Amino acid sequence: MTTAAPAKTEYEVIIGLETHCQLSTQTKIFSPSSTQFDVENPNRHIDPVCMGMPGVLPVLNQQVLEYAVKAGLALNCQIAPYSKFDRKQYFYPDLPKNYQISQYDLPIAEHGWLEIELADKQGEVTHKRIGITRLHMEEDAGKLVHAGSDRLAGSAYSLVDFNRAGVPLIEIVSEPDLRSGKEAAEYAQELRRIVRYLGVSDGNMQEGSLRCDVNISVRPMGQKEFGVKVEIKNMNSFNAIQRAIDYEIERQIEAIESGEPIIQETRLWEEGAQRTISMRSKEGSSDYRYFPEPDIPPIEVSPKQLEAWRCELPELPAEKRVKYEDKFKLSAYDARVLTDDRTVAEYFEATVAEKASPKLAANWVMGDIAAYVNNQKGADPEFNIYSTALTPKALAELIKLIEANTISNKIAKDILPELLTKGGSAKALVKSKGLSQISDPAAIEAIIDEVLAAHPDELAKYRSGKKKLQGFFVGQVMKQTNGQADPKLTNQLLGKKLNQPT
Amino acid sequence: MIDLDQVRKVAHLARLELTPDEETQFTTQLGSILEYFEQLSELDTENVEPTTRAIDMSNVTRPDELEIFSGRENILDCAPEREDDYFKVPKIL
C-alpha cells in the first residue's frame, strides 16, 4: 500500500449577484409621491398607498414599466408578453403593508446576459458572458434609523422613515456564473454603466440607488453538489464587493478544511473591520407565501410597443468599446476609460466627428480635460464634460492646430484653461494671442544667431566639447519666442549652426 | 389536507398566537375549506388557460406625474407612537 502526500485541495467558487437598482422616476411605483432622496425630511414623501392604508388602490407608474423593459432589452433578456405582480409576505417595521409588491413567477424579463471585460496585470483583455436569470419590478421598503444606541440596552427603540417605501426598483438576478470577487465587481460596474447609459437609474451606491447582494458558495474542484450558499450584504462600493467576496472565499475554505459546517445564512460586510459577520439564518422562499396581487391587473407588452422601446435604446458601453478599438484604433484601456461615462463617450465621439485624430482626442479627453472636470465635480456633483465652455468642435480645432504644427502641444496645454472656462474658438484665441508656432526656418535662424551672439562663452564651451549645452540654447530660443518656436525645427537648425565650422 | 403542524407554521408566519383549542379548531375549519375547494379539481381544465382573476383587464397604469399628498400629518398621527416626523417602533436587531 502506498501513501502519497495529500495534494492541496483546489476549490471552485460559485457566485451569483442580486442587484437592486432604483429607477429614476419622478414618482413612486404605485402612487404619485416624490422619489426624492431626502434624509433631512423623514416621512415627507408619503401617501396612503405607499403606507398601506385600508381601501387604497395601487396603480402602476407607466414609466417604471418602460424603464424595466428597456433595462431588460439592454441585458439581452426575453421580455414577457404577459407578466404580473405578486405579494411577498414578511413582517418587518420598514414594510408598512406587511407585504411587498413584487413579481414572483412571471417577471417582466428573463434569460438575458451581459458581457464583462477583464484585464489582467499585463493589460491582456478577456471577455466573459454572465447570464441574467431574471429582472423584475418591485417596490422598495422604508428605512430604519436605530436611535438610542448609546443608551442602556432595553431603553432603545427604532425610528422609521418611509420616504423610500414604494420607490420603484428593478431586481436583477445573475446566473451563478461568477468565479471571483473581481469578476463580481466587474459585473456590477457593467450593470451600472448600462442603467446609466439608458438613463433609467443614477446608479448611486452611496445613496442606495444600486445595492448588490452576493450569493457565494465554495466546493472542492470536481465535486458535483454545490456547497452551502451564504448571502452577503451591505457593500456600498465595487471595491467592497470584491473584498467582501475574497474575504468570504477564504473564510469558507478555512471552515471546510477545519471540518466546521458552513451555515446557510446572511452575513453583513463590515467595512471598518474588513470582514463579514453573521446576521441571521435565512428563511426558505416558501415562507414568503407569494400570491398574485389582486389590486394590480396583469401587464401585457405588445410586439409593437416592444419594438418602439427597442428603437429608443442608445448604443451601449460594450458596443462602444468594440467600436473604439476597431474603428478608432484605440487600446482596450482607452476604450474602457472613454466609454465608462456616456457623456464623456458622446463628447469624445463628437470631437472625432469634427475630424480630430481619435488618439489625440482620447488623450485630451482623458487627460487635462478629465482632470479639470473632476476638479469642478468637487464643488458641483452635477458638473460634467458638457458643462465646460469648451465645445467638442473647439477641441477638434485645437487638436487640428497641433496636427498642422500651427501650435505646439505645450501652447495647447497653456491655452486649454481659458478655452475650458471662457469657451470660444481655439483658432481665434491662438490668433488673437499671437501664439502661432514659428515654423519659418529663416525666422528661427535669425533668433538662433542672436542667441549665439549673446552667449559667446557658452558657445565656446560647446565647441570645445560640452555638447550638453545644446539644451541651454534651445531654452534661450524658446525664451526669446515665448515658447512659440517649433521645437523640432529649432533643434535641427541649432545643431547645424552650433556645429558649423567657424 | 392540513395538519396541526402546518396550522402552527402558518400561524407563526402570520404572527398569530393561537391557543391549543384554536389550533385544533382551525385545523378542522381550514381542512373543510380546502376540501370544498378541492371539488374544483373534478373539472377538466386541460384546455383552459390559467388565470388569477375573473375580469379580463390589463395594463392599468398612470403617468409619472407628481401629486403631493396633503395629509401626511394624519398618517403620522395614526401611529401608536411617533417621535417628531418619525414613526417610533420597538428596536429590531
Textual characterization of the structure:
The complex is a heterodimer of chains A (502) and B (93). Chain A is α+β, with helices and mostly antiparallel strands and 502 residues long. Chain A is built from 15 helices and 17 strands. The longest helix of chain A has 22 residues. Chain A starts with 10 loop residues before the first strand and ends with a helix. The mean pLDDT of chain A is 90. Chain B has 93 residues and is of the alpha+beta class. Helix content of chain B is 39%, strand content 10%. A two-stranded antiparallel ribbon of chain B has the order 2-3. At the A-B interface, strand 2, helix 1, strand 9, strand 10 and strand 17 of A face strand 1, helix 3 and strand 3 of B. Strand 2 of chain A pairs parallel with strand 1 of chain B.
Characteristic key phrases:
heterodimer, A: 502 residues, alpha+beta, 9-stranded mixed beta sheet, 3-stranded antiparallel beta sheet, B: 93 residues, Histone, subunit A, two-stranded antiparallel sheet, 3 helices
Concise description?
Chain A is of the alpha+beta class and 502 residues long. Chain A has helices at residues 62-74, 181-198, 238-257, 303-311, 317-326, 332-339, 342-353, 358-379, 392-403, 409-422, 426-432, 441-454, 456-463, 470-480, 487-499; strands spanning 11-22, 60-61, 78-79, 82-83, 86-89, 99-102, 109-119, 125-139, 143-146, 157-161, 168-174, 210-220, 230-235, 265-270, 275-281, 291-292, 299-300. Chain B is of the alpha+beta class and 93 residues long.
Percent helix of chain B: 25-40%
**Spatial strand sequence of the major β-sheet of chain A:** 3-7-8-11-1-12-13-14-15
What value does the average pLDDT of chain B take? 90
Give the spatial strand order of the biggest sheet of chain B.
Answer: 2-3
Distance between the termini of chain A: 94 Å
SS content category of chain B: alpha+beta
| Total number of strands of chain A | 17
Residues in β-strands, percent of chain B = 5-15%
CA distance, first residue to last residue of chain B: 37 Å
Strand content of chain A: 15-25%
Q: Over all CA atoms, what is the radius of gyration of chain B? A: 22 Å
How many helical elements of chain A?
15
Largest interface: A-B, 48 and 33 residues
In CATH, the topology of the domain at 4-41 in chain B is named Histone, subunit A
Principal-axis shape of chain A = elongated
Regarding CATH, which class of the domain at 4-41 in chain B? Mainly Alpha
Structural class of chain A: alpha+beta
Rg of chain A, Å, rounded: 31 Å
Estimate the helix proportion of chain A, in percent: 25-40%
